[in-house]
Design a protein that fits this description.
The structure is a homodimer. Chain A has 13 helices and eight strands. By secondary structure, chain A is of the alpha/beta class. In chain A, strands 1, 2, 3, 4, 5, 6, 7 and 8 form an eight-stranded mixed β-sheet that branches. In chain A, α3 crosses α6 and α7 crosses α9.
């Protein structure tokens, strides 16, 4: 035990030396030098500097990231919705009742807009109905195969390659500085877990999302978990702090979002005592990605944008702050 | 980046050397040398040995522990129930209706047995009713104060000192070998999180338990989470694998329990591919702790004990396998 402690201390000292060395390099090379980048770098520096008045012990370094529109593209529709639409088509022969039942009827007619008119709740219903009835392992497999085959309609690239390179750098920079990085998303937890580890370096146990119920069943003598068409948690809006409390059990130090669905997560995170950090990705780049905020159906950013100034949250201007948006290849 | 990698590798090598050195020492000094102890040590050795056919990568090293009866004493009643009883007494003046309403009426008359006749569901109802209506921060504070003041009726010691020293050693041994140790308990998640980090070294985000709903409210201009008298999850029996899937998103490699409430967690864990380990703490020590199994109301162990042999689970005979039960002081 004692020698382990000494070794741990030695490694910690060497890590500190390395950290000092690393200060000369650029942890966020895809960010233009501006207020947004500087606010991230400065915050991490002050909370990790031993002896600093604003030092945060490593066990408390929790950073939460929304996924859709914050870590990857959410236009023209949520990726998981694109997956669900394809699933509706594949499953339709087994569900003749969908021809008469909204939002499925509209979807099957190709009228996505009408189907989405029911709002986030309708979206989650579609998701639950098309995701349920299989085991968790079968679901994983289905998502994996879909991600391999599907292409984004505008960029003709795999959906999981349309992640924001500058945000990947933020994730890595935080982890190098002892932060645990979490995804806290309105998207389905099991959907995100399929790619979050490979794409973001975020392991399954650090992904929090909207969740359906599962039920344990015996199948060929072995227990399996079968996904049920029943919503357990909607991890959006006020559901985000509620979900963080349920899963993590402590208030994060940093929160990153892009829409009003992240407002309460940003409020709750930055209302804590001691140093706190909030950031909003503002989609201002119609050329390289999309420009949208107050009027958008997907990822509406209105109240959170109004509050950012008085709350002291960093607002990223995607067009101005990011050198590149997506990685060249993945 | 490069230097960090090199340093990381250097630390890993030194850690390995230390590990080799540590093999000569005893990681589980409170365990008598017997089949139970040897099964734990041998399993950890084989899954952590690089190049071994049964090697498990560090990211997949997840071990789950039941709490009541597995990590600390659960007799004569669950600790959280003792807390809830004291809460019923403190809150009774504000709830005149409890005088007429079971299980509260029996509790207030001091008839714990009658109140408990309703089973685990009744217990959880008491817990939810006495835990709700306050903010999560207020609840933390209430539990902390109660743990400081309350004494176990038989041992006249703080409840959180009645933890099993041999199991603390297992937790530490697993963590030293790259395992993430989780608590997966029928007990309330927020109750356990108050002491789990200090007592077991398990951080809040690695505690999974039965959960009530919370609701975000503004209080004096700041967002707070208020506990609701509504059950969200019962993390017992089949609820344990369901909870593990929800919170962790991967199947554990090792599972530790002591009752039929842990049966499905043990089954689900050990039904996975590759090396798996299941262990049951059998309470056989009336002198130092308690002796109970098939007939016990709290922590009944019946079916899981029948299945242990054919499933290949280790059964700990507390009287024979443990040199000491509780730490001398804490």
């Amino acid at each position: 035990m004692k020698r382990t402690t000494i070794m741990g201390a030695a490694c910690a000292v060497m890590a500190m030396a390395l950290h000092a060395d690393a200060l000369g390099t650029d942890a966020l090379p895809s960010w233009n030098d501006g207020a947004a980048k500087r606010s991230i770098v400065a915050f991490v520096e002050k909370v990790t500097k031993p002896g600093s008045a604003e030092f945060v012990p490593e066990t408390q370094r929790v950073a939460v990231f929304d996924n859709d529109g914050t870590l990857w593209a959410e236009q023209p529709m949520y990726v998981q919705l694109a997956f669900a639409l394809d699933r509706v088509k594949s499953l339709a022969p087994k569900h003749p009742e969908w021809k008469e039942k909204e939002p499925f009827a509209s979807l099957l007619k190709g009228d996505v807009k009408a189907a989405l008119a029911g709002g986030d709740k309708a979206v989650l219903e579609i998701v639950m109905a098309t995701h349920a009835g299989m085991t968790t392992d079968e679901f994983d497999q289905t998502v994996k195969e879909w991600l391999r085959a599907a292409r984004h309609p505008r960029f003709d690239r795999p959906y999981d390659s349309l992640v924001y390179q500058p945000m990947l750098e933020v994730l890595a920079h935080l982890r190098q500085n002892g932060f645990k990085t979490y995804i806290v998303s309105g998207g389905g937890v099991e959907f995100m877990r399929v790619f979050a580890e490979e794409v973001y370096g975020v392991p399954p146990e650090q992904v929090i999302g909207s969740s359906g119920k599962t039920k344990l069943r015996m199948q060929g003598g072995a227990p399996v978990l079968v996904k049920q068409p029943e919503i357990l948690l909607i991890d959006d809006g006020p559901g985000k702090p509620e979900g963080i409390n349920l899963f993590i059990g402590r208030r994060p130090v940093m929160a990153f979002g892009n829409s009003d669905g992240d407002l309460q997560m940003l409020q709750w995170t930055t209302a804590g005592e001691g140093p706190r950090f909030g950031l909003i990705v503002h989609h201002t780049d119609a050329k390289r990605e999309w420009a949208y905020d107050r009027e958008s159906h997907t990822g509406r950013l209105d109240k959170a944008l109004d509050d950012a100034g008085s709350e002291g949250w960093t607002v990223v201007d995607m067009a101005r702050d990011w050198k590149i948006v997506f990685p060249a290849t993945r």
